[in-house]
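Problem statement: downstream parser choked on a complex file, so we are re-checking the raw output for the pyridoxal-5'-phosphate run. The parser issue turned out to be on our end (a line-ending mismatch), but while we're here, posting the original submission so the record is complete.
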Amino acid sequence: MFEDMHNDHILLTPGPTPIHPRAQRALMRGMLGHMDPEVFALNREIQADLRVMYGTEPEAFTALLAGTGSLGMEAGFANLVEAGDEVLVCANGSFGRRMAEMAARYGARVRLVTAPLGEAINPADVAAHLGGVSMVAVVHGETSTGVLNPVPEIARLVRRSGALLTVDAVTTAGMEPFHMAAWGVDYAYTGAQKCLSAPPGLAPVAISERAFARFSARRSPTPLWYCDFEGLRDYWTRHTYHHTVPVNLHYAFHAALGAALEEGLETRQARVRRLGRAVVDTLAPLGFSHYVRDPAARLPTVLALRLPPGFDDAGIRTALRRREISVTGGLGPTAGVIWRLGLMGEAAHFAPYHALMRALESLLGERGLAERFEEAWGGVPA
Ligand code: PLP
């Protein structure tokens, strides 16, 4: 039962993240039509801001798809893959495997490059399987394990091969370095509800000229009419009707992305790292440890922590939920083994994690936990 407003609920999950106050306020704005000139002006600002967020070429095409991150994923395969194409998918977690499943549904012959759970994809394994491949797909930050895949290194190899590169930037864009043009990424997507702290329901995408050239050379139209790249350009560039975009979500997204750029992408990266260090320093004496062994492979925005022996994972998370704090456990083989703490967007601040430490202090009978967190952070923010 949906009992109250949950206005004070603290979401520390690896998505969705708490909605940015400016985005929340923007949701109150009055409705305008999707063909209104003011909405087109707002959309243009969103497109420009997305170019900055993704680090694209100055004129690259960016847009919002009306759906979640998975639609962003699906649109890439639907538009850029045809039956019989060889697609190499880096799959070292559940979202990499989702990519592989989607590629297969669009008729690709899928080659999998995997890595043991909790480890990053080895670029040498990608290099070894690139022959004849028309697209490589990789998840930048694998949410299911807290692993950061080496996208710049993979991109260097893919560029030399002539294949397109699709990157899932769901846990990275807006909070972690992402340089689409400099790295040579052709298609990138995220979900509004992750690093940007906008409401769920929009998938911001960026598409390179190379990707558009591949799309234009298709032998048959994409089976996914809703996200046809040309249909997107009809609305976002030519301002002709394609489908009714969710204008209110655009308002909120515009506000959230604007706030992120105002704060500065590098400041946000530093904020996540500082918080991650403070959380680990606070919890390590209790027996929590990094799940991802290689420091270079740790995804700063999804902190995967191995639980101490005997830790009552389900019981503690249920007790936290009663105190309006949501924390996420592991998935599949890591269920009961790890916690995945979201350090994205509005969750990545001192206050929500201080509240978690206070709650754990009383639930675990660990006196001084919140104080240790304050020290690790470097004092209580004013
Ligand atoms: N890719 C990654 C890395 C994710 O973490 C998620 C969601 O958690 C998705 C894709 C799918 O996004 P959505 O749940 O918004 O469809």
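For whoever reads this later: Residues 2-16+264-377 form a domain with the Aspartate Aminotransferase, domain 1 fold (CATH 3.90.1150.10).
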